[in-house]
Amino acid sequence: VTITDIPTPALVVDVGALDRNIRRMAGFFTDDTCRLRPHVKAHKTAEIARRQLAAGSCSGLTCATVSEAEAVAELGADLLIANEIIGRQRCDRVARLARAQAVTVAVDSAEGLDAIGAAAARAGVTVGVLIDLDVGQHRCGLRPGQEALTLAHAAARAAGVALRGVMGYEGHVQAIRDRGEREARAGEAMRMLVATAELLLRAGLPCDIVSAGGTGTFDISGRMAGITEIQAGSYALMDTDYRDTGVPFEQAFWVLGTVISRPSAERCVADCGHKSMTKDHGNPSVHGIAGATVTALNDEHAVIALPPGAGIAIGDRIRLVPSHTDPTANLHDVFYVIEGDRVVDVWPIARGYPEQR
Amino acid sequence: VTITDIPTPALVVDVGALDRNIRRMAGFFTDDTCRLRPHVKAHKTAEIARRQLAAGSCSGLTCATVSEAEAVAELGADLLIANEIIGRQRCDRVARLARAQAVTVAVDSAEGLDAIGAAAARAGVTVGVLIDLDVGQHRCGLRPGQEALTLAHAAARAAGVALRGVMGYEGHVQAIRDRGEREARAGEAMRMLVATAELLLRAGLPCDIVSAGGTGTFDISGRMAGITEIQAGSYALMDTDYRDTGVPFEQAFWVLGTVISRPSAERCVADCGHKSMTKDHGNPSVHGIAGATVTALNDEHAVIALPPGAGIAIGDRIRLVPSHTDPTANLHDVFYVIEGDRVVDVWPIARGYPEQR
Q1: ipTM of the prediction greater than 0.95, yes or no
Q2: Contact yes or no for B298 and A139 at CB 8 A
Q3: Mean pLDDT taken over chain A
Q4: Which of A304, A338, B88, B199 is most deeply buried (CB count within 10 A of its CB)?
Q5: Which of B87, B261, B353 lies closest to A258 in CB terms?
Q6: Of A323, A316, A176, which Cα lies nearest the Cα of A256?
Q7: Looking at the partner chain, which of A258, A263, A303 has a beta carbon nearest the beta carbon of B86?
Q8: Which of A344, A348, A356 is nearest to A15 (CA)?
Q9: What would the pLDDT profile of B244-270 be if each residue is shown by its tens digit?
């Protein structure tokens, strides 16, 4: 089976490039002061997570949702759900996972702490918690300092939970193109996080985990004293947005499409629109056709401007480079695994909301 | 079961509002000169298509993909796949559908015509074809006039296919906010389409179908002499993009989320990010909280700026109004059907690529 035999649009992942990215990232975390906790949200694929763990240097896995944690539970890793978990049913699912492996969640409220503690008590397990800090992204998280310390004291006293430390995702700096500015802004964020970790330690509270980082800051935040783990995800597959930050990883996945229309010398249309890859970080790039650009991405169509003389015919397969890994992987049920043009495996993606199925 | 019992994020559809939209649109197409051919791509939901057909005024259903046609095949309607169908397997799937019901596809090339004709011949069926014209969107489609007429002659001679007419989607004008400008631009596009239809008729070729239109032009293109059917889809569910064009339909679906963080008086965060609703037409609106706005939509988070004194607590359910119906429905496996806050049914969505499952 080759890429000409599979239905399009399809996600194809070059397993050699994927493994090189995974090894390169693992190779950065070779001393014990800081580990890697690969983020599952980028791919939602147990087989990719398995390869990330097998490469070493990992403290466990990061997930954004309970569903993602359930999808990789079979791997037996230490799981961090780096997000606030609210709602009795959802907390009970976390507690169920905690029967078989270490599971930690983020908390930024007394309500969240109570909910996960109650679920843990119902299940007779202990769930780890990290105090979630707003280090500049202004999404979830408490203010660094006293506010965080107060919730940490409550977590240390609460039944069913074990305080493990703090986290603070510097998501607002990941995509800054200029390396110097990215370093400066990540530094500001990480100093707030580390200072709060020190507050906890001085108060005699546990703080083994200080978790942060992403693909744009793995070698910035990951080198700062006091940060114990980096939650990078996109590095494994990559996209045009992270490519433009200059991080040292190669493109490992594409959307494969079929040319369905060739209405003029300077234009073709492929059957892979934004239902097959999102455009929230811009239109995709065209792989392997110099001078070709995507001029429009509609529901089921990629409109491509071609350079003079491009030998593109109806029925040809083309590859587009997505601009944003995470939501693109989420649109598909499988990765078709390729070596060159051969399809050597198919990996299921735990996309969407398994609780709806 | 109420909306507080279902897992979030979730799509909820108000069946009363949906049915009112469906009736309102059907009520526009009451004479026989122009019919409605509701577009399945907006919802990918057989039950919604069934209600659209039951409301009357329909010539059949429109689909963008073969998978969508397969998902609504059980309804037995006349199916138009308003897209170029390329590839032997895909053409064979169309031919299989044509055993049980009338199926028509768009063609804009000799290659496309040959492929569908060969598949039809293999299956011993006839597949209808419409000559697809570029009426200004510059996506697929032949130039109106002679180029289209040449392919129409070929289609009339080809084995396995039946020429049924022409189509030309004025997608480039659907979202123009100013009604006068939308009318003018749609008029230009439709005159090209109707003129080509007349060319076919003068050449003695069949041209029973002249298909165009969408939710933004149903009462513009749908009133032009020579247009026989309108391919509108979004009107059934609606979104903020079409709302801003002033079309007379009400919002009938929302993304339901749970507030998971309340980090400050002026901000809350809900668990419904752009993996649950796309932002290619902008951030969603907040339903039912005056003065609240979505300031960021990340993978799994909607960050919402709240007005002073908003009584929003962790655990509350909120509703967001998507900016773009079609790709948002495509992110979910089901619609939760509501009457008020009661969940009265669950409708499966044929999202993504069923051929991958």
Answers
A1: yes
A2: yes
A3: 97
A4: A304
A5: B87
A6: A316
A7: A258
A8: A344
A9: 999 999 999 999 999 999 999 999 999
